[in-house]
Amino acid sequence: MSAYYNEHDAKTAAWLRELIRAGVIADGTVDERSIVDVTAGDVAGFVQCHFFAGIGGWSYALRLARLLCLSPANALLGAALTRIKVQFVRGVPGVMTDE
Prior knowledge:
The protein is of the alpha/beta class. It has one domain (3-88). 24% of the residues lie in helices and 20% in strands. The protein has helices at residues 10-21, 40-43, 57-64; strands at 3-6, 28-31, 48-51, 73-78, 87-88. Strand 4 and strand 5 form a beta hairpin.
């Protein structure tokens, strides 16, 4: 599984890469571009997309909640949003959606 992390701060992006190497958060790609430069094509194919990724807290939380291993589970997470919606494939036991 591969995650996309968007974090424009170079030091924080470097920390994300270290957390990925250590296996603390989901394996993935760290993109340091501004969020305004990211297109839908840039994130196509990723299982998790973390915008405003910070130090990977949402990836870590998904791992702790054991949601990382659900396949396919697509998580679109934006820490700057007041309401975060995690969308899962229908039929996964125990997972609620707000459809």
